[in-house]
Structure formats: C-alpha cells, structure tokens
Amino acid sequence: MASSDAQRQALIDSLRQRYADALQREDAEAKQALFKEAVYLDIQPDLFTQESSQ
User: Fold this and answer.
1) Average pLDDT, integer, range 19-34
2) How far is CA 13 from CA 2, 4, in A?
3) How many Å apart are CA 15 and CA 25, to the nearest integer?
4) Alpha helices in 1-54 (DSSP H)
5) pLDDT tens track for 2-11
6) Taking phi first (over 0 means left), then psi (-120 to 50 degrees means alpha), and beta for anything else, what does residue 28 get?
7) Given its phi and psi angles, is residue 9 left (phi above 0), alpha (psi -120 to 50 degrees) or beta?
8) How far apart are CA 36 and CA 40, in angstroms?
9) What is the distance between the alpha carbons of residues 15 and 11, in angstroms, rounded to a whole number?
10) What secondary structure letter does DSSP report for 26?
11) CB atoms within 10 A of CB 14
12) In angstroms, how far apart are the furthest CA atoms of the chain?
C-alpha cells in the first residue's frame, strides 16, 4: 500500500507544479485540463490548488 500512497503523492505533486506553472502563464486552458485530469485520477482539486499552510 505504501507504494500506491507514494504514487498518489507523486501525482498530486505533479498536478501542483503544473498548476503553478499554468497560473504563472495565466493559461486558463491548461488549468481546465488539470482539473479534468484530477477528476479522472479521483484527486480533489484543493489538494493541488492551495498552498500548504504550515
């Protein structure tokens, strides 16, 4: 199970990085594509759209 947790976290990290890049470019189409990908992967958008509050 740890392997699948690590894989899921890697997917979230990838989405987070690509979302940040899309925000910087102000690329609405890329952001929409990332949301669609997240839905497909069953990942909640707030897991990659919000910065960690630590």
Assistant:
1) 98
2) 16, 14
3) 15
4) 2-25, 28-41, 46-49
5) 889 999 999 9
6) alpha
7) alpha
8) 6
9) 6
10) T
11) 13
12) 37
Q: For residue 35, what are its two tokens?
A: 């949301």
Look at the block and give the residue holding tokens 């990332």.
34
Segment 23-37 mean pLDDT = 98
* Alpha-carbon gap, residue 45 to 3, rounded angstroms: 22
Q: DSSP letter at 40?
A: H
Q: What are phi and psi of 27, to 5 degrees?
A: -100, 95
* Conformational region of residue 43, where left means phi above 0, alpha means psi within -120 to 50, and beta covers everything else: beta
pLDDT digits (tens, 9 = 90+) for 9-21: 999 999 999 999 9
Give the whole-angstrom CA distance, residue 16 versus residue 50.
Answer: 8
